[in-house]
Design brief:
Length: 278
């Protein structure tokens, strides 16, 4: 078996696997994820055939995030995953490492030194009562990146400005900010997925601002399908927002960290960017 970094086309294959697992990836996730760290996606090959994957995306020298940990179903239980895991952990050595673990894998991650920080709850459904846009809402893009960096840094734990520049301006995506007195108090992105749309990130300094940003994102996609929002369970205001707009819990993960904790400002996080990259 060979383990090596994946090409963009191979990452596209892994994203298809994620879709088969019911993870509902974004339509453009493969390219966006790959650009975040082109050496951060590892694959296991047997006879030159891709049989397993894991992402180990590094954000500078201090933080990394694991995801897309998959082995083809017919080859599970043969040690492929453990070898991928060892390579990934070697790549992120010396950094605080985060992941969003599915329920079945959480005990395994704990044995590898990961500790539970909190649960993330995925809410989904048809949004009700979309309102007219607030006058405070503005479309954002690459040129506005510097204006949201402090909010994003407080809610992610590392600088990811290059990734965020791509994410905010992705095809079939919409990004909005709530601006008051020249200051951005909240922002968010909604992207097209295999089924419906996902909102993330959704960051705001109050529940009112979060609701206005979410409303703008929902209005952007109209009646194109269900909307999903991944909410940190400790943020009660975010849970209330998800329920208030008509969404229901459909999935959960455990946000876990090893070798430290980035000490995120959880009350600002109304929606996680993605379970794959944090």
């Amino acid at each position: 078996m060979e383990i090596r970094a994946l090409s963009l086309d191979e990452v596209r294959t892994v994203i298809d696997w994620a879709a088969d697992e019911g993870w509902n990836p974004g339509v453009h996730d493969a390219q966006l994820f790959f650009r975040a760290d082109p050496q951060g996606f590892l694959g296991a090959f047997i006879d030159h055939q891709l049989v397993g994957s894991i992402s180990a995306v590094c954000y500078g020298d201090d933080f990394a995030f694991l995801g897309l940990y998959l082995v083809k179903p017919e080859l599970r239980g043969q040690g492929i995953g453990s070898q991928l895991w060892a390579h990934a952990m070697q790549r992120v050595e010396g950094r605080t490492v985060g992941l969003d673990g599915v329920v079945d894998m959480q005990s395994s991650y704990a044995r590898s030194g990961f500790a539970l920080a909190y649960r993330n709850i995925r809410f989904g459904g048809q949004v009700r009562d979309v309102q007219p846009l607030s006058d405070a809402m503005v479309v954002i893009g690459r040129d506005d990146l510097h204006r949201i960096q402090s909010l994003d840094r407080a809610t992610f734990g590392a600088d990811r400005s290059a990734f965020l520049a791509d994410w905010l301006s992705q095809p079939e995506g919409h990004s909005w900010a709530y601006v008051e007195d020249g200051q951005i108090r909240g922002f968010g992105t909604v992207r097209a997925c295999r089924e419906g749309f996902k909102v993330g990130p959704l960051v705001a300094d109050s529940a009112l601002v979060a609701a206005e940003v979410f409303n703008a994102l929902a209005k952007s996609v109209g009646d194109g399908g269900p909307i999903y929002l991944d909410v940190p369970e400790p943020n009660v205001a975010a849970l209330d927002l998800a329920r208030a707009v008509g969404l229901s819990p459909v999935f959960e993960t455990a946000r876990m960290y090893a070798k430290g904790n980035p000490d995120l400002d959880i009350p600002l996080i109304f929606g996680v960017t993605s379970f794959e990259l944090g």
